[in-house]
Amino acid sequence: MHTYALLKKTLAAAAAATLAMGTAYGQETIKVGILHSLSGTMAISETTLKDTMLMLIAEQNAKGGLLGKKLEAVVVDPASDWPLFAEKARELIEVQKVAAVFGCWTSVSRKSVLPVFEELNSLLFYPVQYEGEESSKNVFYTGAAPNQQAIPAVDYLMNEIGVKRWVLAGTDYVYPRTTNRILEAYLKAKGVAAADIMINYTPFGHSDWQSIIAQIKTFGSAGKKTAVVSTINGDANVPFYKELGNQGISAEDIPVVAFSVGEEELSGIDTAPLVGHLAAWNYFMSIESDVNDAFIKEWLGFIKNPKRVTNDPMEAHYIGFKMWAAAVEKAASTDPKAVQEAIIGVSVPNLTGGVATMMANHHVTKPVFIGEIQDDGQFEVVWQTPSTVVGDAWSDFLPGSRDITADWMPPLSCGNYNVKTGMCSGQNYE
Amino acid sequence: MIKVDKTAVILCLVTLAWVSLARAAEEDFLQGIAALVVAESYQDKRAAAAVISTSGHARAEAVLNALFEGEVYTTRSDMRLVTAAPTDEGFAIRDAVTDEDLGTVGKRDVSRVSVNNQLRGELRAMLATLKLQHENPRQRIAAILEVGESEDLAMLLTLQQLLATERHEGVRDAIAMASAMLNLDSTEVPERLAAIATVSSNIGGHVRTKLTALTANQSLDEDTRVAARQALIDIERRVTFFDLIQTAFFGLSLGSILVLAAIGLSVTFGIMGVINMAHGELMMLGAYTTYVVQQLMPDAIGASLFVAMPTAFLITALVGVGIERGIVRTLYGRPLETLLATFGVSLFLQQTVRSVFSPLNRSVITPEWMSGSLEITPGLDITLNRLYILLFSLLVFGALLMVLRRTRLGLEMRAVTQNRAMAKAMGVRTDRVDALTFGLGSGIAGLAGVALSQLTNVGPNLGQAYIVDSFMVVVFGGVGSLWGTLVSGLSLGVASKLIEPAAGAVMAKIFVLIFLIVFIQKRPRGLFPQKGRAAEA
Fold it and tell me: Are A261 and A169 part of one and the same domain?
């Protein structure tokens, strides 16, 4: 039923947008592209972000718009189809002539649109935590880089909980593989022996976790405190946590810290067996701050459902949108080139009571929180970094990318600059 | 006279002592509660909880238990410690000290006294000491073993006192084990050695951790280290053996799910020869039926599965008959068209479910009697949900075999598959038999869906995950052979679980597929090929 309402709203919004296009010839508007899947497998996560953007745009318009013009949302549906993302991005930029695009969720969709944004020199705000190893002139990464989520989480387990043995469990695709590569290098740099690290990959939607959990159990009973660092994605999480509970592993014995499980993912499942397991994010709905209270209130009012939750990627869009708006006002123009220059150094309040700043490598500063899952599907913050962490595009723990730095300020103006050789390799990452 | 006086004095003293003790308990308890209200850090909370737990107050256990469960809150207005249960609007709160009902308040009027994993672990230990006298022997054993892991040598005395009055055999054993576990830290060599001998029958993680620490501790005597090492070797040997049994069980369990998913298909595909791509979606319908049944009877989750089973069977069987009468009937003998048409049906069913129930996964609750695991011996646990599903799939298999062998419908089915024209000539209404056969296969898919709802996500894509595996099992077993399906499902399950620990889940899947491809090349008719004239047709 609920999706129906959403669908209707989307259609209405799209219709309104089209109508506005026809009638608003006299008064010019600034168009903002929204590139999130509204159908297919990723629709579950991405529809929420589309609604968040519509809410933020409506809010900005209520305040009078930008540069004296109203903002106009242009919503397209790339349908969880990676090549279609590129086509829709091109349509947004070339046909609709949007000033900036907010969108994408999976890394593969981002990689798919990247050449389009670079060719047409437009702007993309990408709101999801990702594996790093990228910095494009045209993309602003408002989600966490590995050093803003994975590394602090491991630090917490190592220093506060005293974890000595590590299970790195993930779904078999690019984000978990890269993240685990970084974590493995990091753990080894910290003196963890190879025998104390177990790495496990499973296919998408894996549902038979019996032997893997039994393996983790054996691995964890070798006399050292053990934790699981989970980059398990999507649907596979429910049977994973269920099996953990059934085999009698509680969060006190072997805590699991997850990077892809947030409020939205927990809203569909019975969280009683998950209590005490951990997640690392830059935002939790339960964090008490005035801006967060106001944001939650506005969101629940906008979506007209008191049961909905807020999550980390929504905050990333909030930050990204505010930054873009601030940069447009600073540059007094929506021209992508002018905004690219103006946005570096822009600071806006984040939802947890701090400030986010856009750095020269197109990543933002973020605080890192570790939360324990509660039985109401919310997180209780048990640890946080003392100050905000600067997102690092190129990991310091991978041999290939250690010497590479990203800096889009002149004179360097390069996303892939090798400090040793003094070469700028452009977007040719590998 | 003097005698009476003495008694009176003693009585008086005892009463006084009791009263003052009780008062001390009350004071300590209130002090702990007050400390808990203002506690900022987890350390403060721990200290406050420790005061409460040692106060000996009647409410201590209840308060600590509520704290452990995350049900303790403070009111914002008057900073009172309360226990709260969520209601629609906010919380129904009760005073933590007196358990007096304080009515309901809004969500923002109270703030939770949060606990983290570490504090939860410590609370568990505190609760254990309070539960040592629990009336239920199971609870007592759990509490005693918990104390055994506390590494608190002072608890030895408490355990000895308990042993003096304890009559229950299991509890006495637990006390001996817990004492031995504590004595691993003893400073006396003979006690340590005795303790090592006792714990070597225990293969729990804690004991292994302690023993490993003992072997590595250079400051200890040689005897202890050798004994600890020997005990560890014994334990490891047992663990390896148990692991083997466990892997076999995991394999059978995975196999039983494959069998359950494939057995319906072996009726429609194997017996009738219809390639039904919508088979997975029929399972999905069965899973959704379970969800709906649970929504309809929220107070009887335990019984809901027994209602869901026949309901799911009926619903999916009816859908199956519908598919057969509506689509498949006109396409007999045209496998490619049947494949495409039923694939269309599968998309249609998926989208319908998406529209009716939303694309989000639905949460199906696992009943109490299916949660947790069964301890066969210490260190060898079998998860209950898997065990029940294994039994269930064997039951379904047996029932299906009975239907085919012993009933008139089964006879007619076999007659129609073997020689349609001849069966028709004998007066068998073949189209009715076709519809019923298809319905039977579909109904079994529905039953599989009920079982799957206990293991995996109930969502529109549930069926897709199993359809390929189902065809694999049927083809490997030999098309048309029920026994083949059983054997092939179970053996594929065991094989992938044997490969998995060494090669990983992704590689295990690949290996199994490669093996199947090679196998089918060599024996195109599967494990149990159909013989006789029917096979040639």
Answer: yes
Domain boundary among A366, A401, A419: A366
Residue B311 vs residues A387, B286, B362, B443, B451: alpha-carbon distances, Å: 57, 8, 18, 10, 13
Least confident of A185-194, A390-399, B3-12: B3-12
pLDDT band at B178 (very low <50, low <70, confident <90, very high): confident
Contacts of A232 in chain B (CB under 8 A): none
Q: Flag if A223 and B209 touch (Cβ within 8 Å).
A: yes
- State yes or no: pLDDT of B536 exceeds 70: no
- Whether the predicted interface score ipTM is above 0.90: no
Which of B176, B201, B187, B123 is CA-nearest to residue B153? B187
How close A306 gets to chain B, by Cα (Å)?
11
* Interface residue B106 vs chain A (CB under 8 A): no
Q: What percent of chain B is modeled with pLDDT above 90?
A: 27
**Domain span at A239:** 147-287+369-388
Domain membership flag for residue A196: yes
Pairing of strands B110-112, A29-35: unpaired
pLDDT of residue B285: 95
Task: Classify residue A53: in a domain, yes or no.
Answer: yes
Which of B455, B457, B506 lies at the smallest CB-CB distance from A235? B457
Peptide bond into B524 cis (omega under 30): no
Residues A172 and A240 in one domain: yes
Q: Is B461 on the interface with A (CB under 8 A)?
A: yes
* Torsion angles phi and psi, residue A201, rounded to 5: -120, 145
| d(C-alpha A302, C-alpha B36), whole Å | 39
**Per-residue pLDDT, A22:** 43
What is the C-alpha to C-alpha distance for residues B243 and B207, in angstroms, rounded to an integer? 18
Q: Does the pLDDT at position B533 exceed 60?
A: no
Beta bridge partners of A124: A101, A139
pLDDT of residue B53: 84
